[in-house]
Amino acid sequence: MSLLSIFKPGLLTSKPTTGKPKPVAPPEVKSVAGPDLAVIQSQAREIILEAKDEAIRIKDQSVKDAKTRLEEIEAQARLQTQKQQELIRQDEQLNRARIGLDEETKKAEKMRADLVSKQEDLVKKLEKIASLTTDEAREILIKEVQKKSAGQIAKTIKEAEEKAKSESDELAKEILVDAMRAGATDYVAEFTVSTVAIPDEETKGRIIGKDGRNIRVFEKVSGVDISMDETPGEVRLSSFNSVRREIARVALTRLIKDGRIQPARIEEYLDRARQDVERIMFQEGEKLCHAVGVYNLPREIIAMLGKFKFRSSYGQNMIAHTLEETQIGIRLAQEVKANVDTVRLGCLLHDIGKVIDDIEGSHVELGVKFLKKFNLPEAVVDAVEQHHEDREFSSKESVLVYVADAISGSRPGARHENVEDYIKRLNRLEEIANSKEGVQESFAIQAGRELRVVVTPEKVPDEQLPILASTIKDEIQNSLTYPGTVKVTVIRETRASDVAK
């Protein structure tokens, strides 16, 4: 109930009057009824009490919160104090440790200086007692160690060789046989002599000419030697240069068919034959390149490769050798995941220096110099330069070119060797072995494919045999050129004998 509702409505208004308004007297406030006032007062007291209780409760809660927060702050302060004290303690320990370490370091430096000084004194005393310098003593010690460890070294070498052989022999044989099968070509031995059949003795006389005029002109212009006395019914043309010999053969064959053999016609036919042979060589060079899958080489290189048709090495035609080697090299490169194109070009061009006959030098040097004019890939030129191990191998492609060349050149029946060179090679093998200390005698057997070395038992112990064999093998590889392989066998034999009387 509102306070206004306890007042009567009439007390707040006055009736309208006529005339002058009369002053209105203030209303008379009457007392509120007893029960309503008591209720209001009771409610007011309850509200006040509740407000006081709430205020007390809020105050108590604030005091509790403040107390709790204060306790937390005090705890954190104590923790920080403990940490600070711990850090101070650790810092003091580190300082003490650092001081101790410095003292120990100084002691160690002093001890090391004392040891060095004592060592120098001992070395001087030992040198004085032994009458040896440090270098001399070191050399004696090294020799003793080598002598004692020779047996272990030989054992290690033997174990390594056996392991490598057991793991690689079969796989290597399969790869090489497969590559050789892929590169197999027809083979015909070639020499430095060509023959031309003549129909009768009258033709032989026309070739010789009056007072030998025709034959002298022919030999002078062609650069070959003509022999007619060894075999009836044919003329033999001899020259180390296969191209010249082929030009002479073609020209002489045509002259015999023509029948008019005289100096002017000889020169004419030789010029024509030279042009024809050059054209044939270029065609042969193209056929060789296309046979191994090489295209767009410079014409100068193709023409030079065509000369292989009339060039042989140890009786092996160079086109046949190059074709065979390139096919073997390609197959090997495919097997070992090497660059096939580099191996292909390296095998194709490796012997190109052999047909460069207008400049002095080895065929490797001449070939490298010639190929560098055409900006070929460096890896290809390196393979050509390294195919006889004149330089260390720079890539696995170079190794494959070397291997393919060795396979093609050393397979049975591929080549024949000049007798004088063969004898020189055998003598050189024995000279290499005989130059080693402790070797009594040596024998090159099996056409130079095996070297047997007999040592003096008193000078060479058993454990030194593998090392001696390896040393001889290395010198043979570095100083000789030979087909196939050379097996080195070192023999040590002790004999005892007596005579019964």
Mean pLDDT: 80
Tell me the CATH topology of the largest domain: Hypothetical protein af1432
Radius of gyration (Å) = 56 Å
Please state roughly what percent of the residues sit in beta strands, choosing from under 5%, 5-15%, 15-25%, 25-35%, 35-45% or over 45%: 5-15%
Q: Show unreliable segments.
A: 1-21, 24-32, 184-191
| CATH homolog superfamily of the largest domain | Hypothetical protein af1432
* Alpha plus pi helix count: 14
Q: Rough shape?
A: elongated
Summarize the structure in words.
The protein is mainly alpha-helical and 501 residues long. It folds into 4 domains: 65 residues; 92 residues, Ribosomal Protein S8, Chain: A, domain 1, CATH 3.30.1370.10; 125 residues, Hypothetical protein af1432; 74 residues, Cation efflux protein, cytoplasmic domain (Alpha-Beta Plaits), CATH 3.30.70. It is built from 14 helices and 8 strands. It has a 3-stranded antiparallel sheet with strand order 1-3-2, covered by helices on one side. It has a 3-stranded mixed sheet with strand order 6-7-8, covered by helices on one side. It starts with 33 loop residues before the first helix and ends in a 9-residue tail after the last strand. The N terminus is likely disordered.
